[in-house]
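We close this part of the discussion by returning to an individual protein. Part of our work consisted of pairing the sequence of a single chain with a tokenised description of its backbone. The amino acid sequence and the backbone structure tokens for this protein are reproduced below.
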Amino acid sequence: MPRTYIVQPRQTLSDAVINATGTQEALVHVAFANGISPSAYVPSGRVLVIPDDAPTNTAITSYLNANGYVLGTMGLPAGTAMESEDGDGIVNEDGEVIISED
């Protein structure tokens, strides 16, 4: 069962993941599970999901590459559909989230 972490005031996702896991290694995987940019400020009180298989060691690069994640982004494979407050979108080949304007 995934672990959870309640975000404290004025935390970015990166800060919250470090507090929740004790390491930044799991950041991209947690960002993927929560649909949040690592540098985004997360609303205080939000519950983050820490997946059971979130990497917690230095093997994160090979883990992410083997599972089709894009490093340096939210970790979403190209073609992934997304929903956000700004609208629905899709991830392009560069790992960027493109929000549709309709």
Notes: Residues 3-75 form one domain. Confidence is low (pLDDT under 50) at residues 56-61, 68-75.
